[in-house]
Amino acid sequence: MRLHEDTIEKIRKSLDIVDIVGDYVQLRKQGRNFVGLCPFHSERTPSFSVSPDKQLYHCFGCGAGGNLFTFIMEIEGMSFSEAAQFLADKAKIDLGPSLSKTSAGGDARDQSKKQLSEGMDLLTKFYHYLLATAKFGKSGMNYLNDRGFTKDMIERFQLGYAIDSWDTATSLLERRQVNLGQMEKAGLIGKRGFDNKYFDRFRNRIIFPIFNPRGQTVAFAGRTLGDEKPKYLNTPESSLFHKGKILYGYHLARQSIRKSNQAVLLEGYVDVIRAHQAGVTNSVASMGTSLTEEQAAMLFRAAETIIICYDSDTAGIEASFRAAAMFQESNKIVKIAKMPEGFDPDDYIRKFGGERFKSDVIGASQTLMTFKMDYFRRKRNLVDEGDRLLYIEEVLKEISTLKRAVERDHYLRLLAEEFSISLDALKRQEMQMYKAAKRQEERRDRERPVILNRPDRIAPAYEMAERRLLARMMRSRKVTEHVRDMLGGTFAIELHQALAAYLYAYYEEGNPPDEGLFIQRLEDPGLQQKAVELSMIPMSDQAEEREIEDCIHQVIKHSKAAVIADKEEERKQAEQSGHYQLAAQLVSEIIGIKKQLNAHNAEQE
């Protein structure tokens, strides 16, 4: 679909980019802008800047940049039409009358995803209705009541029940004219091989809808009421659902995470629901024991402190160790909540209550280093001298990776006291490891691929002049008209030439000096990104006449120097070919251009 420009502008002006980006990135104010960790590449120190004045964002590390629409398209993997609909919903703007068809392929993909989303939403409401209705949901509700789930949690997480029938959900979808083939592909229904008839995949199961960060259903998990196998039946990945990019409960926990600046990471659906019921509303789950980089990045951006609270069994401890390793390279505070042996969060809260879970488990979380010391200790027989030395070696290696000297000293003292070892000896060995780790880190930094968008060089004067002129032109019609009269298309860099041409046309159409509006009109992603980068150049609000003239002079100077160089090359070739008359003509032209350049230089002085 394509929106009218006035509708796009209405959406853009109705929302604040800081609020939109702030749902995905933890931002802090710095001067006039807000900064945070870039959501589009891995980094330890913030290089991502959001300008509330310009309603733009730009990463000075990877070069990503744009406005509200491009941000949502990138972060959510949406098409422009999907991003527009998403933002319009937030702004409470109806897009109905403003839509017109665009390319058939793009519209078909959007339509297919929309139909799938509507089908999942329909089933979410249907399964929830069945659970809440005594006639159909009695067995499902009895199961949840026996497990201690409150009515509030059942509503909050939209839990449902699939009755023990082969065609109840399928018949509903058919009556509502939902594409059954599409529902089968998404794993919501099945298809029999012998007669090609569709049937319900979920039967006699508690239904856990899985929501994306926007609160839309993207998948389902169904838990059996008894001991049937499999215990959990899950829908596969689809155009809407990528398991590694979703944290269960994140849509409900997001505000609490931001308010507390802390996220609690659990393993499964039931643990999250139980934790929310206990008041730990900043809890989410990785839906299994394998945390992905994408899931970790969501937590990176949302909170300063991450508490990992997995099961106390061997698999849970190993998963905690792996998850902790993903957070170690960041500047975040990582803690491990230690569950008593034989308990998961659900069991613990049911037995001891929510207050004890908050105080004795979450509140008593270990530091990451303490957890690692316990982890290594489990793997060694410390009575054995060889194992004891290996344990000390492992712990020293971990201590050497700590950034702060105070932390390293603290854990070295604990180690010295535990094994009655000389603190000085431990410090000497740890220092050797620390220096080796630093050298290895420096080597990795040197070998790390260069991000092309990062300015690794000092740009020549003409390039800097073109950049500043374009930045000023986006802010001023008067400057643009003056540059057009003096330079026209005389920009050495092709992207700059294109931006200048678009700016001339933009003002010719009577548009105001609005960087956000201009950037929105650019359809080429490369031009849009470059325009954002130039827009974020720090400069005074008002352009000095001298600044503009100096920049114009640098561009003209470079342009004429380039022409002279080309003509000198032509002259050499003419002389070598025996075309002396042409060579003499070129010499005359070169002298004329040099005179013009000298005269221009004299004017500048």
From TrEMBL:
Q: Which InterPro entries match?
A: DNA_heli_DnaB-like_N_sf, DNA_helicase_N/primase_C, DNA_primase_core_N_sf, DNA_primase_DnaB-bd, DNA_primase_DnaG, DNA_primase_Znf_CHC2, DnaG_bac, DNAG_N
UniProt-listed Enzyme Commission number(s): 2.7.7.101
Catalytic activity from the UniProt record: ssDNA + n NTP = ssDNA/pppN(pN)n-1 hybrid + (n-1) diphosphate
A GO molecular-function annotation: DNA binding
Q: Which UniProt keywords apply?
A: DNA replication, DNA-binding, DNA-directed RNA polymerase, Magnesium, Metal-binding, Nucleotidyltransferase, Primosome, Transcription, Transferase, Zinc, Zinc-finger
EC category: transferase
Cofactor note from UniProt?
A: Binds 1 zinc ion per monomer.
The role this protein plays is: RNA polymerase that catalyzes the synthesis of short RNA molecules used as primers for DNA polymerase during DNA replication.
Q: How does it assemble?
A: Monomer. Interacts with DnaB.
What does the record say about domains? Contains an N-terminal zinc-binding domain, a central core domain that contains the primase activity, and a C-terminal DnaB-binding domain.
User: What is the protein name stated in its UniProt record?
Assistant: DNA primase
